[in-house]
Amino acid sequence: MRPFTTILASCLAVALPPVTSRANPTVRTLLNFNTNEGAEPYGRLIFDAKGNLYGDLSIGGKATTKHPYPDGAVFRLAPAAGKTGWTQTVLYTFKGGADGAEPTGGLLADSDGNLYGTTFLGGADGDGTVFKLDKPPKHTHVWVKKTLYSFTGPDGAQPFAGLAVDSKGNFYGVTTSGGQFNQGAVFELAAKTLTESVLYSFQGPEGCTPYGGLVIDNAGNLYGTASTSTTAPYAGSVFKLSPPAAGQTSWTFTQLHAFAGGADGGSPEGAMVGSSGGDIFGATFGGTGMGNGTVFALTPSSGSPTGYTYQVIFTFSGAQGSNPFGDLAMDKAGRLWGPLLNSNDVNSSGGLFVISPPTGGAGTWVQYASYLFNGTTGGYSPYAGMALDSAGNGYGTDFTGGNFDVGTVYKFIP
User: Fold this and answer.
1) Helix or strand or coil: residue 263?
2) Which of 95, 155, 261, 384 could form a disulfide with 67 if both were Cys (CB 3.0 to 4.6 A apart)?
3) CATH says 26-291+375-413 is which class?
């Protein structure tokens, strides 16, 4: 098994060195969103080489006389030189309709600093789009948005997750609906021609309605999750799509695991993450007796019919948060970072977690750090995964809460 790429987060992402655990994890609010600048983020942030953060917002944005009802935005958050504050800049506001609406999947950046993403709605047929934002040349500050593809339904519809890209520049993603059976699809958008191809249409029993993005390994295999199935609601599955063999044209679909609910976990909603050793890690929103959620691992195994063995490596109790939703992130020490939507604390709605692998490769995963939001500092309802910096901190967004109750950007110091 070849190592996984880290392309899903961003080609500009920073690897995290080992850090010493702090006794009292803290969260700092970097920005309070408001609908005039864009609000209610779902997607994960990314860094550029200068330490700026980029993200998308599902509603709001800069209104104009011609377009008074903005439908989402892309923004940059820059650290102020020599100061503690951060400065937000709206790079683009979606106009709805053919222009696209409700970007939810987070962004991808190329080596030139251009940004790529998806909109859940809008486009030529209202079923969502793939877009590109061209970075401005030095003499201007205007980012130019191009619609690379508009979904029509049979080719997929309503992409909630963002994009992954392979070494040739081809884009891959999932749609929550559409496809041949209207249960969602996996698609490819060719780099040079921008031709869209449906690689797989979900039928339902093997999984459907994928919300989490894809992970690509160095052999070009795609890995993802389906949040549910038509035979076992609130269960879902993990799948692998392998490129066509020589002389063939069809990709091969393999169900790596079908969730059973309960202690096995169920309803995976975010993107997984792959380790350099070939292990795949993900989280389920539900599972266990109280439905608090799990973190799972798929380990390469020559003795398994699918090539992997499945194991629940961590179960949330609710006391330190529950129900992981967004993408997982992995640091250089092998710790897993993620957001939680709920908790057993009546004064909190969501939080953050970091779990550590067993020492020496044997034993159990343990809670390294956790933080519960209180609705003001850090907001609450974090749907998005975190971007990690080189100092051992996580950066993410909350969907609601903050000064205007439409979300925040936070810095998590474990």
Assistant:
1) helix
2) 95
3) mainly beta
